[in-house]
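Task 17 of the worksheet. Students: predict the tertiary structure of the chain below and write it out as structure tokens. Keep your answer in the requested format; marks are given for formatting as well as content.
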Amino acid sequence: MADNNHNPQIPGQRQEPPATEPARKAPRLAALREQWSDAWKADGFLHERWEDLRQAPELGWHGMANWLKTALGLAGICAVLILLDGAASVLTDALHRLLTAVPHVQVGADTSTGVFTVIDQPIRSYIATHSASLPISASTTYTAWQLAGIFGLVGGFFHSSGARLTWTAWGAASIAMVYSATPADSRTITTGLAVLAWTAASALALRGLTLRPAVFTHIHTPGPQIEPHIHLPAPAAPPADNTPDNVHPLQKR
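Model answer:
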């Protein structure tokens, strides 16, 4: 009968059992322990990083290690991005609720009362007619128009240049909407009333603004004339017993 053993035992040689899995992992664990111990020695990588962390409160921002500054900077940027993302979501949701809920008006209908109707009704009708293709409703557009006017009025009262520009553009747009949406037989009167109302409100929005050119007068008051006096010390006289070097007696031949 044939022997199926492909690795016959050589006479006089001891056959060792195959190495087990724990025996193979033992050298790796020993090497990892040695590397860990070396990293925590005086000049090890982990020991130096720990020293950087320990000395950071004493050294301050300018004295701490660069890698620690980089880590803190990245952590701060990530925190700011997270806060901005959350704040943007909250502000967007709040603004959406404000624009869709305030006010609940039927734009284009006669919902205002009093003299204000003469100006407000054409603006409502114009917005309702030209906002059908917009991704927002006509009520939202009307509310945004009102908020822009309030911003320009209040900001202009406190001398904000940007708010005053907004107020000027808002007034021109409002007058144009009134002129376009008013019937032809009453267009002139309605537009004139809109101009008068915007001009009267501009007394608050453009408070302190004047059209007169600023004249700067410079008054020169000369002070007392002081003549400078320069005192030069007198040259010292040469000693009497010394003859100048440039005087030579004549020589006869």
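Marker's comment: The chain has a mean pLDDT of 76. The helical segments are 21-39, 45-63, 66-101, 117-130, 138-157, 161-181, 187-205.
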